[in-house]
Design brief:
Layout: E1 2-4, E2 13-14, H1 18-24, E3 26-29, H2 36-47, E4 52-57, H3 65-69, E5 72-75, H4 80-93, E6 97-100, H5 106-121, E7 131-135, H6 138-141, H7 151-167, E8 173-179, H8 187-190, E9 195-198, H9 204-214, E10 231-236, E11 240-248, H10 270-278, H11 301-310, H12 317-322, H13 328-343, H14 353-366, H15 376-387, H16 392-395, H17 398-407, H18 412-426, H19 434-440, H20 446-458, E12 463-466, E13 472-476, E14 481-482
Parallel strand pairs: 3-8, 3-9, 4-6, 4-7, 5-6, 7-8
Antiparallel strand pairs: 1-2, 1-11, 9-10, 10-11, 12-13, 13-14
Helix pairs in contact: 4-5, 5-7, 11-14, 13-14, 13-15, 15-18, 17-18, 19-20
Pfam families: DUF87
Region (Disordered): 486-506
Domain Helicase HerA central: 11-69
């Protein structure tokens, strides 16, 4: 990393045990200008030949690693599904990557980072190779308190960071998080690090957090105010068993952004300065400068969906009078048929509910569906029913309504899985395999399916057992139903040109 800079050390080398770091994680703290980014760049350059790396880069500073060390730069201006799949492929092929979040607002950065971290976390067990995951400005992705972003974005981002620092070690993910403000970083994320590099900081609340993490007395924390740029205090099994002052060594690459430097002002006589400002040059074209009106704020997704639901072409009066009224059963049948068309599209199982809802509304308008279309909550409920593979007659029955009522107590992303199990249990079909359960919740990860099954069993919504062939049987105590035995590994991924129901998409 550099040299020992404390009194009596004589500029001895300061090393970092990379294998120990992979098992114990690292937290870097330092105010702006303390050399925190320089430290991360030194760590990445020195470890690049030995371990795969992924950098979550909010400002695009680390993209310069690509030219020297072969990192692949991933522009975050993609869908969350694309980022998840790219992250999974990076783990599969052991490619070092830089996720550049430059140009995105804070909420978009949080969502994209969460999707990318989730893709690495949910990778198949066969690809759990050691990987160094560096997150710069970690207080953005794991904030200690709610800010201006939505609660949903904060929850998703904080969950991904918690998975990285708390559960990532068993999956080969070693978190290295860096922050300017310890007080703004979620405590459960910071507390999982066993190695620390503390740089210059001035605020009492940050020094108190730093001294608490390092096990130092409060008066000893005053030393953080006196640290020079590029100097840090190291502690941890991969660094030093006692607090050790170190100076970070030189780096081979540089960031695109640089620290501000003082430059002398041009020596121009005062009368010339006046002319430069108020007298147009001959090359200028004199034209009135239009007054720019700031654009209105972009409408939210919910507003757009509400507008789409209300915008329908006017029907001719005579045509409306001639058409017979549609019964409730016919309307439900058409809605279900449109939903099946939506879900038969390639990749439909892995798209967000909002995207599917927009597709549904467009298809309703094409089919000239009379009356008001389903609202978003109603669409979610009907989508879960169709994904569970329940026909229209069964969906209107009293028994299925009981299943839907029990499912409403679960989180939205799990309700479809519960209804899938309920349909199999009601019809006494074999228990769905892990791949089918994962597809019902919009994922390809069988590990995620097993975690959802374990969660529902822990919450006592289901009870699992195996028969003598090690096939799974799931009982639903609230409904008194039970599936037949089914092989959890029997699922085969359908071809890309087939939808959720196995039919070829047109």
């Amino acid at each position: 990393m550099g040299t020992q800079s404390g009194a009596g050390f004589g500029n001895q080398p300061a090393t970092l045990d990379l294998e120990e770091l992979l098992a114990t994680r690292l937290l870097v703290q330092g105010n702006s200008g303390s050399g925190k980014s320089h430290l991360l760049r030194r760590l990445l350059e020195q470890s690049a030949p030995w371990v795969q790396q992924a950098i979550i880069d909010p400002e695009g500073d680390f993209v310069t690693l690509a030219d020297k060390f072969g990192h692949v730069v991933v522009d975050a201006s993609r869908t969350e599904g694309d980022l998840q799949r790219i992250a999974a492929r990076a783990r599969q092929h052991r490619v070092s990557v830089v996720l550049s979040l430059e140009g995105l607002d804070t909420e978009q950065q949080m969502r994209c980072a969460a999707a990318f971290l989730g893709g690495m976390f949910d990778a198949d067990r066969d690809y759990w190779y050691p990987m160094l995951v560096v997150v710069d400005e970690a207080q953005l992705f794991a904030p200690a308190a709610a800010g201006e972003v939505s609660d949903e974005a904060r929850k998703v981002s904080l969950g991904a960071m918690t998975n990285l620092m708390c559960r990532g070690r068993k999956r080969g993910l070693a978190g290295v998080i860096a922050t300017q403000r310890l007080a703004k970083l979620a405590k459960n994320v910071a507390a999982e690090a066993s190695n620390f590099l503390m740089g210059r900081t001035f605020l009492d609340i940050d020094m108190a957090r730093a001294s608490d993490l390092l096990g130092m007395e409060k008066r000893q924390a005053e030393m953080f105010r006196d640290l020079e740029r590029g100097h840090f205090v190291a502690l941890g099994p991969a660094l030093s068993r006692r607090p050790l002052p170190i100076k970070i060594g030189d780096v081979e690459t540089s960031a695109r952004s640089t620290s501000p430097r003082l430059l002398p002002l041009p020596e121009t006589p005062p009368e010339d300065i006046h002319d430069l400002l108020f007298v147009p040059s001959p090359e200028e074209i004199i034209r009135p400068t239009p007054r720019r009106v700031p654009p209105p704020p972009a409408p939210s997704t919910n507003d757009l969906l509400a507008q789409l639901a209300k915008t329908r072409p006017p029907e001719p009066a005579d045509k409306a009078d001639d058409e017979p009224a549609m019964s409730k059963e016919e309307r439900i049948a058409i809605i279900d048929s449109i939903l099946r068309e939506v879900l038969e599209e390639p990749e439909a199982s892995f798209r967000s509910v909002a995207v599917l809802y927009q597709d549904f509304l467009v298809r309703c308008r094409i089919r000239r569906m009379p009356g008001e279309p389903l609202n978003l909550p109603g669409f979610r409920r009907r989508l879960a029913v169709v994904r569970a593979g329940v026909d229209t007659d069964t969906a209107e029955g009293e028994e299925w309504n009981r299943a839907v009522e029990v499912a409403t107590a679960l989180p939205e992303d799990i309700q479809g899985v519960y209804l899938l199990l309920a349909r199999a249990a009601m019809q006494h079909d074999p228990c769905p395999p892990d791949g089918e359960i994962a597809r019902a919740c919009g994922s390809r990860s069988t590990g995620r399916a097993r975690r959802l099954i374990a969660y529902m069993e822990q919450q006592e919504y289901i009870v699992c057992r195996n028969d003598i062939r090690n096939h799974r049987i799931i009982a639903l105590p609230d409904l008194g139903w039970e599936t037949a035995a089914g092989d959890p590994n029997a699922y085969e991924e359908p071809p890309l040109n087939e939808g959720l129901f196995g039919a070829a998409a047109e």
